[in-house]
Amino acid sequence: MRSGFGSVSRSSITGIVLIVTLCCFHVFALKSQLLTRHGVLVDSNAKDSVISYKTLYFNQKIDHFGFLEDGTFKQRYLVNDEHWHQKGGPILFYTGNEGDITWFCNNTGFMWDIAEELKAMLVFAEHRYYGESLPFGKDSYSDTKHLNYLSSEQALADFAVLIKELKRTVPGSQLSPVIAIGGSYGGMLSAWMRMKYPNVVVGALAASAPIWQFPDMAPCGDFYKIVTQDFAEGGLNCDVNIRKSWKAVDNVAATDSGLRWLSSEFSLCSPLKKTDVAGFKAWLQETWVNLAMVDYPYEANFLQPLPRWPVQVVCKYLGFDPYSVSDYQMLSAISEAVRVYYNYTGSAPCLNTSSTATGSLGYIGWYYQACTEMVMPMCTDGVQDMFEPQEWNFQAFSDECHALFGVRPRADWAGIFYGGLDIASHSNIVFSNGGLDPWSGGGVTRNISDSMVAIVIPDGAHHLDLRYNNEYDPHSVLSARAQEVEYFKLWIRQAKKQL
After folding, report:
1. Catalytic positions
2. With 60 as the cut, is the pLDDT of residue 7 above it?
3. Is 98 helix (H, G, I), strand (E, B) or coil?
4. Are 72 and 197 in a shared domain?
């Protein structure tokens, strides 16, 4: 942990992480307050795809809602106008997530695929406190006082101000309709952007956006039920054996020789001690969750390099009769399954139980957001899911947050500020969710009105529709993307009629 914060256990940190594991172009010079840098990214999941962009920086206010803090910081954003050659042409604006914006730019091929058809400018805006957009530079995470301006409300205001400045300073963009697009937390932001700033964006695509994963909006156990369902459908006995593996870990880890065996069998970078067992099981639990999230139909490297349908590949190791094997045999199979996630390429010399996903995500920042306004209850019962029973305990969660940051979460704030379940008065938002994605349990999966619509992708994992078209894509995601483009065209026509 960084200086200025307390410490909590690995299992406590994992609980916070799972709350949202949660998971490039030219623009005319925008006066002296904008700095530029060119860049190129290659998406390994898109054949022959090289995306070029210009990196720019905008002097953004640190605090949009108060007057004591009058400082600014450089917010990074990426722009491509390769296909934007008409006055008033649309702008597709990606509302940045909890991480480096270049990573999200590289994993949002849908926007690149449709830019030419829509003759659209693409803008990817980085979320404050992530990537290079640090309000207080190297001191941004030094203590809670400096983290005070990290919130979704401030981020949305950043996006609104940036869009207004782009339209004011980029020739030909003054009448351009802007559509917000995002996935996961970024999808939540895109939906909230349309709700809070309908004067700035004409519509929004909120992909895999769990805007209802908050207290009293969705059952706390739905997330892990969906993870379990994915593994149950991945292969015979797959979920059953994972459910039985927790007791096997306890049995084997009860002795020093068992701990040594586990460390060797799983090729762990650091040998397990008895005090590490809870953290080891938390690491395994998060591994299964991440596999469900990125269960894509083709090889991908969103969180880790993985094969096609990775859950099915994992389940090939776990198809045995759970009552016919010893604890050691059970865990040997679990270790092979885990390697699918951590060592598919075969290049990992050892497995690190303190790391489960990509370094492009800003975990400390997200811990803080989860400990303030993004309170997302989750629980397991070990019966309807394949995990050890763990109830949702808000007080314990609050205590963990206080130990880590010295803050207490506002459990009901998201419902109060963003409307909770009562969002029918809004318009022009498409909510897309994948049937394989555990976050769909907190997503909008039914139509709310004619212009607040839900698209469900039965074969889709976490925001599959935002990725590049791929030859292995199921028909359901191709259909979803086609529908989304049609809604974009409708919103663009509506906006032009109102001019």
Report:
1. 184, 437, 462
2. no
3. coil
4. yes
